[in-house]
């Protein structure tokens, strides 16, 4: 039985782009060396950094010089007003839009010619918040990160938002993430990174949700202080974490509580193909603490959409995704799951397999944040909001998805904070 972790594949990519040159064992690329983005590899060949910090600073500007960075240096003052003394709960819609692919060349094959399609996706979700459609959600959630496309994803969101009215901007909830590079060990690193993200996002209003992308080997407590500082300074309206296990979640919640800052979200891998958060108590812990769960990769990177049925259907897919998909498609239990999803979709008018995957995440009380790269995909994903799974259907899907396909064993996140001993990641 194949036992490959989607999470591992994802993080390997991220690691290769940004942490691949480091010797941090916990983040090492264990499965080979996917190609490096052109701008970054150009940078490497031209400039030998004197330190890791210099390297990343230079890498960022090199990338920006070619494709991103003109973009990174967005002018204009950052509006940072003091946070209100009373915390306002973060209001989130029942579905989000993942923007990892918006700028990521290595894993997703992004190039700027796709920007028009991405702009259409953005405009579509804004329409949902503006009440311009029957679906109408009170607001929309876009999830990005400073790592995605080395800032390109954040920049695109900033660009697409430029001409929105103030009223609409308020309805676009932007969640971005701090990258815990091993050399970032101080609270001020969080605040500085947050300011840079804020500029790329347009710089005219606080970030709605600022998350720690994944645990670090050390300095996790310092990051929580950094989050609280960013919150107190009014740079962000709410804070969250990502890829945190139960113990880390509880410790972070307590630390932030002491500063009067609510921990709003934990963004974790959760899908019909990755159900560890159910088994290890993480979903329950989030619920107990009132921490909203954002389910990332709810479509298992596209596998749970029904468009890939056998190895022959993978012609358009390349890189690490292809290897992962091949292994999964060969698993007869996955085929049974797909058949069940198709059967469930056929019970509902105009429903499809991707919507079944999304609604399964919703049925578990989480907010799925599927990625979308064109209008057809985003319309389909939002279409999931027009119907719901019955209890019987959820049970049927649970059963079909009860095989142990993915394992977190190989996930390259640090399991434990080396200085405090706290278990950080366990799913
Ligand atoms: N915190 C973390 O560590 C972490 C890790 C991973 C992801 N995330 C977040 O979660 C978001 C979503 O996860 P993900 O992008 O990894 O994977 P995903 O949502 O499981 O899959 C997204 C991909 O599925 C395909 N797709 C989407 N909608 C479709 C539809 N209706 N019909 C057919 N195909 C469809 C698209 O790929 P094609 O265009 O190739 O068909 C799309 O890029 C990310 O964008 C990111 O914001 C966070």
Automatic annotation (TrEMBL):
Domain NADP-dependent oxidoreductase, first and last residues per copy: 94-400
Gene Ontology cellular component annotations, sorted alphabetically: cytoplasm
Keywords: Oxidoreductase, Signal
Superkingdom in the source lineage: Eukaryota
Pfam families with a match to the protein in the record: Aldo_ket_red (PF00248)
Example of a GO MF term: oxidoreductase activity
Signal sequence, renumbered to the chain: 1-26
PANTHER family assigned: AFLATOXIN B1 ALDEHYDE REDUCTASE, PYRIDOXAL REDUCTASE, CHLOROPLASTIC
UniProt name for this protein: Aldo/keto reductase family protein
